[in-house]
Amino acid sequence: MPFESRHGTFVSDSLNLEAAPASVLPRWPIFVLIVGFPLWWALGVIPLVPLVMVTIMVFYLMNSTGVRMLPGMAPWFFFLIWVLAAAINVHGAADLAGFGMRAMELLLVGVSMLYIANAGISLPKKRIVNYLVLVWIAIVGLGFLALVMPEVRLKTPLGAFLPESITSNELVRNLVFPPLAEVQQPWGAPEPFIRPAAPFPYANSWGAAFAVLVPVVISRMVTLRNRKLAVSLGVLLALSFIPAVATSNRGMFVGLAIAIGYALMRHLGHGHWQLAAIIGAGAVVLGVMLVSSGAISGILGRQDYSDSTGGRLALYEKTWEQSLQAPVLGHGSPRIDPTIGVSLGSQGYLWTLMFCYGFVGLSLFLYFIVNGILRTWRLANTADIWLHASLIAGLSLTPFYGLSAMQLTSLAVVLAMLLRQRYLDHK
Questions:
Q1: Alpha helices in 168-307 (DSSP H)
Q2: In whole angstroms, what is the distance from residue 239 CA to residue 228 CA?
Q3: pLDDT tens-place string over residues 260-297
Q4: Going by C-beta distance under 8 Å and a sequence separation of 6 or more, which residues neighbour residue 23?
Q5: 31-34 long-range Cβ contacts below 8 angstroms, 24+ apart
Q6: What is the DSSP letter of 3?
């Protein structure tokens, strides 16, 4: 029998999935969270969004008559418990503030996933995918704007109220006075590199979001009955590689290549020969265009003026060594290493998890993602394969890029949709 509480019915792997459905949850919190993200960025309130949205969604869930926790979701909440336990190793007010912000982002991911799982009536899959496509369109639009006005930095209402002692911190400054682009001119470079970043603090975050959301966009394209809309979205997808290339994100292209290759193999495995041929041809055309236009050489050329690869390898080595000093609970938060001048536990979400929450925390996170992928493997229609590819892209990015609230929430929302379809919609 399911566990009954005054707040509803919780369902886990070993419990009955035929419990009474939850009350109709309103769709607006997810709309505000996803589609409203560029607005929160422009207002400089991104650090406050997790607390606000968690409070709202928990309120609705607590007042629901029946709440399901679907199979595959529990590992995330075990991971959250481990994250909270890692707080014991956090020292200093600044580190504690950073720890709290990251913990709230992770809590937002879990609550959003639980909300989606129980909002099947008000939030069908197509609506949620539309939300993700809309935020992708906004990200691409801001990417083009960054290329036109790279030096622009917004002055937000929140930033106006904060003292200079707080806004002098680089990360805080980039959150409350967000730039449209990272403008970098390494020593010896003939001209600056303009790397779109908005609506994120850094260009690498833009690239990570792009790689995670492109498969979602393709998933929507293949289900559109309106040919004009499908063609328009396809044209925008092709044009989106202009700001994408400008970010010079090698890891982004690696993630996209893995996602596309995965989808191609899945379609071949299910006998979708015509679609596989279209995907293969499109990938070849895109590759030829990137090479012939000089885009690839431009991305690789930036490395001639900065030792980013060597610097990352040194950082990874230091992070590994220090992680071995706290293998169970980790260090709680990234810490600056005076020998290389960079914070350990940065430059890749895998390394952040390992350093901050130990190897147990890292294992719980990876188990959640991989377990979710395996549980939803049998969903094999065209749209679901591409949603699945989004999860593959996100997983492949973890060694290279940090994943902030937007990227993690997008992945959790996609997984929640697939788990809901796997265990509820097929009943």
A1: 170-176, 203-221, 227-239, 241-246, 250-269, 273-292, 295-301
A2: 16
A3: 999 999 988 888 888 778 878 877 877 777 766 656 66
A4: 63, 64, 65, 66
A5: 31/131, 33/108, 33/112, 33/409, 34/128, 34/131, 34/132, 34/134, 34/135, 34/409, 34/410, 34/413
A6: E
